C-alpha cells in the first residue's frame, strides 16, 4: 500500500503522524472530519505517478496525538497545516482538501501566508452554517456520550460514518475509517471534536474567499447527505475565479466512493494550463 504513516512531526498542537510518496511537483492532501489520511489511500497510488504526495493525520485524528486536554478546532488545524508545509519545505504545493480540510487549508492560505500552486476543494466545510442537529446535540452533551459502553459507542461511530456515504465501499476501508475512534483516547477525541467545533473560525475567513491567490477547482459529490450540493454552489459564488464540477451519484466521500473518477477530475485540472493569479 502506498499510503503509510512512517513519519512523526512535532507541531505546536501535538505530535502528528505523516507520510509521503511519489516523485514530481509537491501535492498535499488535507483530510476532514471524522476521517484521517487513510481516506486518501485509494487515490494516492495514481497521484504518486505524477506528484510527490504528502499527507498527515490532523491532531486529534487517526494515528496522531489525541490528548485529553488537546485543542483540535479549526484555528489550530490551520496553523498546523502551515507548520507541516514549512516542515516539508514546500514553497507552493498543490493542495487537495476535503470536508474540514477545506476550512483548515483556507485558513492556512488566507491567514498564515501559505501559497498554493493549485487548489482543489472537494465537498468541503468552508462557510456557515455547518454541522447538524445531531452535531450540535453531541457538542452540548459530550460528558454523557463519553459514558457510553464501548459497543454502543462503536455503533454510534459506524452509523455516523455510514450517514456520509451513498455508495457501497470496501468493508476493510469502512473498518479502517472507524478504527481510530474505538480506543479509549480515540473515543474521547471523537466527542471532543463536536464540542470544539465553532463557526467563528469559518466566519473569520469567509469575507476573504475572493482573495484566494491561485487557480481553484471545486468538486462536489452531487448526492452528499452531509453538505448538500447547494452549499457547493454557494461556495463557488464566493470564489468566482474557481471552476466547479459535480460528481453524479457520489456522496460525501468521493475519494473512497469513486476514486477513479476523482483521479480523472484531478488530473484534468492539474494538467490544464491556468493563468497566474496573485
TrEMBL record:
The keyword Lipid biosynthesis does not apply. InterPro entries: AB_hydrolase_1, AB_hydrolase_fold, Epox_hydrolase-like. Signal peptide: none annotated. Keywords: Hydrolase. Residues 27-264 form the AB hydrolase-1 domain. It holds the Pfam family Abhydrolase_6. It comes from the Bacteria. One of its GO terms (molecular function) is hydrolase activity. This is Alpha/beta hydrolase.
Amino acid at each position: 500500500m502506498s499510503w503509510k504513516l512512517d513519519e512523526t512531526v512535532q507541531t505546536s498542537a501535538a505530535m502528528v503522524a505523516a507520510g509521503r510518496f511519489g516523485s514530481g511537483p509537491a501535492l498535499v492532501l488535507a483530510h476532514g472530519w471524522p476521517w484521517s489520511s487513510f481516506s486518501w489511500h485509494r487515490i494516492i497510488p495514481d497521484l504518486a505517478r505524477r506528484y510527490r504526495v504528502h499527507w498527515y493525520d490532523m491532531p486529534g485524528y487517526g494515528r496522531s496525538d489525541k490528548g485529553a486536554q488537546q485543542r483540535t478546532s479549526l484555528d489550530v488545524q490551520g496553523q498546523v497545516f502551515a507548520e507541516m508545509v514549512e516542515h516539508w519545505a514546500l514553497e507552493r504545493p498543490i493542495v487537495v482538501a476535503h470536508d474540514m480540510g477545506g476550512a483548515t487549508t483556507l485558513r492556512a492560505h488566507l491567514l498564515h501566508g501559505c501559497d498554493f500552486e493549485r487548489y482543489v476543494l472537494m465537498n468541503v466545510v468552508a462557510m456557515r452554517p455547518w454541522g447538524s442537529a445531531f452535531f450540535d446535540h453531541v457538542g452540548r452533551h459530550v460528558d454523557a456520550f463519553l459514558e457510553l459502553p464501548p459497543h454502543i459507542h462503536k455503533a454510534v461511530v459506524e452509523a455516523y460514518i455510514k450517514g456520509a456515504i451513498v455508495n457501497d465501499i470496501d468493508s476493510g476501508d469502512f473498518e479502517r475509517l472507524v478504527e481510530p475512534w474505538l480506543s479509549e483516547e480515540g473515543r474521547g477525541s471523537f466527542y471532543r471534536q463536536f464540542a470544539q467545533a465553532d463557526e467563528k473560525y469559518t466566519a473569520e475567513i469567509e469575507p476573504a474567499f475572493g482573495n484566494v491567490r491561485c487557480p481553484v477547482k471545486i468538486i462536489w459529490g452531487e448526492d452528499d447527505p452531509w453538505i448538500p450540493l447547494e452549499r457547493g454552489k454557494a461556495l463557488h459564488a464566493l470564489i468566482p475565479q474557481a471552476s466547479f464540477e459535480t460528481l453524479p451519484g457520489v456522496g460525501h466521500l468521493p475519494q473512497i466512493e469513486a476514486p477513479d473518477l476523482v483521479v480523472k477530475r484531478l488530473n484534468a485540472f492539474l494538467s490544464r494550463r491556468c493563468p497566474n493569479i496573485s
